[in-house]
Records
---
Amino acid sequence: MVVDGESVPCDVYEIETLTENQTRLTKIYYAQNRPPYVLKKESITTGGEDDTPLVQTVEQVVATGLQLPTPSGTLSTSLVQTMRKQVQGTVFITAIRSEEVPGGVVSHTSNELDEAGRVIRRSTLSLIRHGRSRGRLDQSSRSRGRRSRAGIVRAKD
């Protein structure tokens, strides 16, 4: 993997998910010593009798260590680009992410194109503020969501 013009050694993991009529193969490029650690993800979902590609996604870190000044202080961020291609069109996403922010997303811009290449939807998200509040959260206001984990089918060097 090359990030910031530098070769970064990565472990490559492949995860295969099978359902009744679809197969998803995901490759994860993981750098043990380079935040944000998952430097690239490639995924292809196929289906039907002829294994036609239904969805293809590539998410890649293109820059790290970018310093972003905010009212709360300077954040160390990464620039991540994603392309998701499916039969109906393609979505391009550019995101600024930081491990210092809950949820990781500082900003996010997406453009969705139809199969003819026309923009049909745009969205922009920007973090306004982050940090801990001075008061404590009571139990009723805390998130009760569950975390899920994917199983690794096989790892490649």
---
Amino acid sequence: MVRTVVAVVAAIVVTIVGIFAFEALTGLFFAPPEAAATGDKEALRAAIAGMPFIAKLMIVLGWALGAAAGAVAGVVIGRKPWIAWVAGGFAVVGVVLNSMGLPQPMWMLVGGVVGPLVAAAVIQRVLPVAAPAPA
């Protein structure tokens, strides 16, 4: 039971860290808009609309890869395949909440919902789950 709780928490933490890390990597190639520092939502919306396609694609990939990393961590620690869905679901909730505050192109929202769920499904099916050691 404790292992499962630790695995779920690890899945969520690794998902968050993975997404932030990939977004930071994206920021190295494409400087974040100045509006992000000011907190002006209208300026930020305009800046997002003006971002290059590849920068937006990297953000969507980061959502999926962050969920995949969280799924791997959760399944490896908890030895239960369903924990992969915790990471995928958590990433999807974050994407939806983020898009409610900052409207993004529809393809980003669709990719942000589908990508993490596909990542979770792949990890759940591909990652072998080690049987617990006999007591």
---
Amino acid sequence: MAQGFAKKDFADPGYQDWTPTYANLTVGNGTVTARYIQIGTLVHVYWRMVLGSTSVIGTAPTFSMPVAAGTGVADNNQTLGRALMSEAGVGNWNGSVRMRAGDLFQVKADDASNTYARDADVTATVPLTWAADDVFSFIATYEAATSALIEMGANNDHGALSGLTDDDHSAYPAYGEWADWSPTLTNITIGNGTQFARYTQIGKTVHVWFHLTFGSSTSMDGSPSISLPVTANTSYPSTVHPLGSCILHEGGSTRKIGAVIMDDGNSQFDLFAQNANSTYAALSGITFSVPFTWGTNDVVAFTATYEAATAV
């Protein structure tokens, strides 16, 4: 067995440019920055557009992904990241990034006009009346359909280093490769619902996505939580550290916006709705009737990123 292996021996794949294909969005003379990085099957992207005088934002714009997505969930409920939409000299509006079928991103605006915050289609006038010098941007993380090798050796193995044998290669983790995990759910009964739970760990960084579609015997009680796939670092403060965002979808109706928080014991994801019934949105506990009365075909989905206790 080869000795002296260190994480730094892996080549840095680096960020790359990509040129998205757009629907319901015209760049015109605007300026776009679109960059992504892929490690194994982990893909992280950021996109930013400064509008020009001939740029046009249409209704429900979509953006092609730089790398084909895995065969998980693509039903517009899986949240992948967050968006920021800025009106020059006025203010900023938040939004979320969704996965759409066909390897597409779609950005939704956060709508705080109801008791619980929900999403709304971005249009020429939502969440602002778009004009030159306004900025549209987002970040997202997702699982790719195929892996990008970090460094290639003679045997074309993941993380291969020059001069190592097949036995040597098998001893090293497949960085960025996603795997299933079977979380323990508290105050959620899956019943005949359908659950997807995936995670990947790179060093001490853990990315996860979770998606549950309710069946007729699925139930939601108060204060739902979901166990972590990997033990978290103990430095997280109790109940005040955000890890990601979630979507709470009432089947056939609206999608509410929520948050993912580290629980007191650093062992679970706690899920919350956003109560928009005040000047500033606040977190509100989820119950069997909050943010709506849960039933068949409803969905709870989230993504999160956190620091693990130990590295791989």
---
Amino acid sequence: MLLWLARQVASGAIENVHHIQTVNRTETTRSDRLGVSGIDGLSLAARDVTVAPAAIAAIVASVQLPSAAVQRSQERSVPVQFDVSEVGSGAGAGRVPVVLREKSTFLVPRWAPTRPQRVGEVEQNRPGWPD
């Protein structure tokens, strides 16, 4: 399950917050690694999660796109992909690595700057912001 919110952070980057759930249907603890792809420059804050046996883990994943990449992007909705892979489940352990791919979307809000703002410049024309 994926749920996202978009905002601009202090550095000028656009951040989308995704809520991701992963299920461990085995009887042993599992470690998963989260990755994201789809746009050059994307960075992911939440990477590793440990899931208890027969449990569900909720992950809050912060995905950021630097302001320079935002300025290059002409799209407001860009497809991205989350990859969840099991850590330490290589062929040496006698198991096939599990990789799950989930499609999602990275949103660039309409009010995202199309040019760098100067220090002290007042943000204007943002929907919902007082003038």
